[in-house]
């Protein structure tokens, strides 16, 4: 049975001279992988080959056996012209769709993540929006939604609150959150947290509670770097597009 859903294009690969395999994040079904027959022809129903970040109305037939479904028609309704004109915004957008696709299983609905990605891409399309703050907030919200954010307001081991802590603080993905200096001493997998990172974590936590906060670029970069480190550790691999946004570790 055919389904019709709003969708964002996450990944594409060539299947043949005229067709593609396309992964979409849909609002109601989650990530779907489809064979898009003939889309590389200029006169296809989608108007040509499908591009990353394309957003619109998707009509498709889902797979019955866990393989590829079939794309019937895709009508792009949201343009990304402002993003494509700016390298920093384009790189950030490509990072967000790679992260979303890596974190979500196929055919597992997450309408909140679809809305989160849509809103983040809309923000990145606004010329005055702070790119690194958008990336940091997306990372925070996505990791929290999938249950991987970890313990950030207190030491995950001794439970000492991080607010007002005067010693060094560390983050360990394998431990599941922040560690104080004493508890971190026996943990080999960790990264140091400086004052900018802890301030950014506090700001993101405040934003979650409904307060309006701003995140300067220096803070946004530090916390995005930490959360990207955490995401890569949980996935067991680095995200290919991360270095173009955050630089190399």
From TrEMBL:
It holds the Pfam family RecO_C. Keywords: DNA damage, DNA recombination, DNA repair. SUPFAM superfamilies: ArfGap/RecO-like zinc finger, Nucleic acid-binding proteins. This is DNA repair protein RecO. One of its GO terms (cellular component) is bacterial nucleoid. Residues 1-71 form the DNA replication/recombination mediator RecO N-terminal domain. GO terms for biological process: DNA recombination; double-strand break repair. Belongs to the RecO family. InterPro entries: ARFGAP/RecO (IPR037278), DNA_rep/recomb_RecO_N (IPR022572), NA-bd_OB-fold (IPR012340), RecO (IPR003717), RecO_C (IPR042242). It comes from marine sediment metagenome.
């Amino acid at each position: 049975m055919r389904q019709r859903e709003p969708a964002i294009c996450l990944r594409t690969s060539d299947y043949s001279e005229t067709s593609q395999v396309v992964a979409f994040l849909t609002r109601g079904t989650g990530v779907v992988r489809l064979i898009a027959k003939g889309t590389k022809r200029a006169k296809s129903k989608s108007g040509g080959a499908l591009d990353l970040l394309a957003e619109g109305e998707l009509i498709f037939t889902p797979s019955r056996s866990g393989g590829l479904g079939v794309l019937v028609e895709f009508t792009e309704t949201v343009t990304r012209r402002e993003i494509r004109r700016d390298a920093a915004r384009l790189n950030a957008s490509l990072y967000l769709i790679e992260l979303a696709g890596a974190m979500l299983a196929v055919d597992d609905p997450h309408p909140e993540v679809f809305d989160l990605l849509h809103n983040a891409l809309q923000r990145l399309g606004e010329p005055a929006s702070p790119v690194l703050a958008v990336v940091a907030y997306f990372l925070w919200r996505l990791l929290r939604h999938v249950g991987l954010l970890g313990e950030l307001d207190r030491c995950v081991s001794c439970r000492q609150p991080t607010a007002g802590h005067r010693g060094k603080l560390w983050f360990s993905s394998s431990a599941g959150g922040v560690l104080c200096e004493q508890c971190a001493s026996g943990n080999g997998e960790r990264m140091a947290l400086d004052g900018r990172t802890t301030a950014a974590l506090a700001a993101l936590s405040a934003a979650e509670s409904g307060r309006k906060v701003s995140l300067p670029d220096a803070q946004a970069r530090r916390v995005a770097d930490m959360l990207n480190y955490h995401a890569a550790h949980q996935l067991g691999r680095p995200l290919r597009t991360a270095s173009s946004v955050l630089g190399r570790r």
